[in-house]
Amino acid sequence: MPHDSTAESNEHEPLQKLLTILASPWTLLLLHRLHMEGPKRFGELKRRLGAISTKTLTERLRLLESEGWLLRHYEPTVPPQVTYSITPKVLELDGVMIELDRIAERWYGKDKKGS
């Protein structure tokens, strides 16, 4: 059977798309914070993430909302209140996030000093 590189590349397209989104800087940490701590407003998210720029946070939130990973809840108060929360879709990443958290603690946690 001839090797069809087009079929092979299409076969990996869903994984490539998922990994491209997850690998973009700040995305996993942002999702992790919302998953573990619940819905947050923009300023609160920015404080919880630390060194993220306003521009990058805005870009990530828009990307994740467009992918159906986040919900943006707008309250027309003065000033307007916008709250971000994860969608049920992101809960499918629960096992992955928990395992990454465990690995991070094992590799880089308080008890590890460069080991």
UniProtKB/TrEMBL annotation:
One MF annotation (Gene Ontology) recorded for this entry: DNA-binding transcription factor activity
PROSITE patterns, sorted: HTH_HXLR
InterPro entries hit by this protein: HTH_ArsR_DNA-bd_dom, HTH_HxlR, WH-like_DNA-bd_sf, WH_DNA-bd_sf
SUPFAM superfamilies named among the record's database cross-references: Winged helix' DNA-binding domain
Sequence ranges assigned to domain HTH hxlR-type in this UniProt record: 13-112
Entry keywords, A to Z: DNA-binding, Transcription, Transcription regulation
Protein name: DNA-binding transcriptional regulator, HxlR family
Originating species: Planctomicrobium piriforme
